[in-house]
Amino acid sequence: MSATPVSADLSVEIVGAVAVVRLTRTAKRNAVNDALVLDLRRVFESLGPEVKAAVVDGDGDHFCAGLDLSELSERDALQGLHHSRMWHKALDAVQFGPVPVIAALHGAVVGGGLELASACHIRVADTTAFYALPEGSRGIFVGGGGSVRVPRLIGVARMTDMMLTGRVYNAEDGERAGFAQYLVAKGQAFAKAMELAEKVAQNAPATNYALTHVLPRIADQTADHGLMTESLMAAIAQSAPEAKERVRAFLEGRAAKVQKD
Hints:
Blueprint: E1 4-7, E2 10-15, E3 18-23, H1 34-45, E4 53-58, H2 77-95, E5 101-105, E6 108-110, H3 112-119, E7 122-126, E8 130-132, H4 146-154, H5 156-165, E9 169-170, H6 171-177, E10 182-184, H7 189-200, H8 205-220, H9 223-239, H10 241-251
Parallel strand pairs: 3-4, 4-5, 5-7, 6-8, 7-10
Antiparallel strand pairs: 1-2, 2-3, 8-9
Helix pairs in contact: 1-2, 3-4, 4-5, 8-9
């Protein structure tokens, strides 16, 4: 199926069981405006049951260069609060939507672009990727969930350094810091992300849901509460007919065993 434009700024293509969601503001380095934020929310809230995983990509040389500052208007405190909450709802739709989401990162992964990437569950970067949070030098603060999600990837100290000093991480240092779980050659991020998405799409739906919705919440709980939540989710997942068949297939030698790459 060919890509279907959602708007001038975003397209969606269904490839098998994978939805490819692509930012298409190429002339703006895929900088995010309000319309694009709302488009992203609508897409992830309306994925059909045939979709089992998604890939977020950016058209052109960059994943996303952040907030489109040309649209930054004079807002009072309440308007600014509502604007930030609009981003939160959109990126919550990515992180806590119906399917696991893999980001294919290249070029600029900056500001709001890093906030979008951090809402995805797996990040694949190629060697052109670079990461920055320039809000500090511009007199503003992250508002799209970055203060919650980015420290979970790289730690509070690294994020503080980035915002205080304007530090930019290249692809290699970014992988070591935790921005991405995979680092591939230039131009290969999307192919690797698709490979992973197709593999993820074959998992039992209950397991994917547990990993994308329950595991992050367990991480926020006390140890005792987390262990109880784990037990409840484990009981639910293993009771599904599909889980029983998969375990049976393994015990009968019909399923592949874990192998070292």
